[in-house]
Amino acid sequence: MIDQRARPFFNKYLIDPIARLLVWVGLSAPTVTVSGLLLVVSGAVILGLGHPVTGVILIGLGSLLDGIDGAVARLTGTASDRGAFLDTVSDRIGELAMFGGVAWFVAEDATLVLLTVITLGNSMLIPYIRSKAEAAGGEGKGGLMGRAERIILFCALAGPVGLDWWGMEAMLWPMVVLTGITVLQRYWKSWSQLSS
To answer: What distance in Å separates the CA atoms of residue 70 and residue 181, rounded to the nearest whole number?
Structure first.
C-alpha cells in the first residue's frame, strides 16, 4: 500500500536524497543491499538475545538501506536483473531473521512461537503469490501489508517491548491478522486476473 500510494513522496524527500549521498560516497547498489541485510540480521540476533530496542533500531536502519538500493542502482545506471534478484532474496532472508529473532525472544511461550511461525509463513506467502501471479501474466500486488508496512508495524510494536510497555504479543497478534488478510487479498486479486 505504501509502495503504491506514498512512494513518490518518500522517494523525493527521503530515499533519493540518501541514495545520492551513498552514490557520492561511492557505494554500489549491491553493497547497499548486503549492508542493509547485515544490519537486519545483526538486529535480529540482538533482539533474540533480549534487547528489542537496540535490535529494532538496527532492523529499521537495515530495512531503510534495503529500500534505497534500487534508487542507488537507478542513479548509477547499474539496475539489473541480478540486482533485483539479490534484493528480493535479501528481503526474504531479512524477514526470516527478524521473525527468527522474535521466536528466540519468546521461545518459552509456545503460543507466541506459534504466532511467530504463522506471521513468518504469511510474510513469505505475500511475495510468493505476487511472483507466481506475475509469472502467469497477472499482477499480484496490493493488500494491506506489503513489505514496507510489515517493517513499520514490526518496528513500531516490537521496539517498545524492550521498554516494558507491552509484551511481544502486541506486535504478533496484529501481524498475524493483517498479513493473513493480505494473503487472502493478493490471492483473490491474482485469481481474478488469471484465465481459467
So the answer is: 28
Q: State what percent of residues in the chain have pLDDT above 90.
A: 81
CB 186 within 8 A of CB 130: yes
CA dihedral angle for residue 96, residue 28, residue 85, residue 17, rounded to 10 degrees? 70
* pTM for this model (two decimals): 0.92
The number of distinct structural domains making up the chain is: 1
Residue 91 catalytic?
yes
Identify whether the C-beta of residue 30 lies closer than 8 Å to the C-beta of residue 81.
no
Domain residues for 74? 2-193
Query: Which CATH number does the domain housing residue 171 bear?
Result: 1.20.120.1760
Q: What is the C-alpha separation between 16 and 20, in angstroms, rounded?
A: 6
Choosing from 66, 69, 87, 91, the catalytic residue is 91
